[in-house]
Amino acid sequence: MKKIRLKDKEFELFIPENDIRDAIRRMANQIEADVKGTDPLFVGILNGAFMFVSELMSFLDGPYELTFARYSSYRGTSTTGMVNEIMPIRVDIKDRPLILLEDIIDTGYTMQFVMNKLREQGASSVKLATMLFKPDALKCDLKPDYVGLQIPNDFIVGHGLDYDEAGRAFRDIYKVIY
Question: Helix (H, G, I), strand (E, B), or coil: what is residue 173?
Fold first, then answer.
């Protein structure tokens, strides 16, 4: 589809599914080379990263441990500035290397909060892999370790990303027109 409508907004095709999968495959190759000989815990950040996590883990194809956590700071198309921990990690992270799997980094506040919290809780290291990165939107000192695609600061949906919980299941990514 070239255009979609969600609630009161219209979106146009921005990144096709094949481009997303190619970027995730490249990232998986880099991560696999970096974690060889270690026992990392992968942490998928819900809800948005569910498609990214599934694809990335299928490309890694190893005996890796995976868990999920959920944090929220968005309402509609903008951040509230407050991070809410909805579902904490329920696995012992003490002295474990962690790789957080996030759908998108824009302001960076949520992941900065989460990474600092996990370090304080005793993780031996915390790395960040993101399917999408908006460097122009970044408002804190955060540098993802693995980036699928860098994109401009447009509001987007699809491939796990939502507009007020709608649009996550689209395979392609769409950007807002109005």
Answer: strand
